[in-house]
Amino acid sequence: xxxxxxxxxxxxxxxxxxxxxxxxxxxxxxxxxxxxxxxxxxxxxxxxxxxxxxxxxxxxxxxxxxxxxxxxxxxxx
Length: 77
Description:
mainly alpha, 0% strand, extended, 2 helices
């Protein structure tokens, strides 16, 4: 098995995808507070670059937010 690292946008990460936590990982699942903190961090990162009057087409040029490593496994049922 091989691990490939690929940078992804939030849109690419979440579009048309369903994620599940493996049984052995469930003790590490996030609580509501963790999700809220992530959303606040993402919002603040976006607002650091946003200026009044910016068009949506300018968003891809905004600064990046480093989320860290996420390991995704493809399972075939």
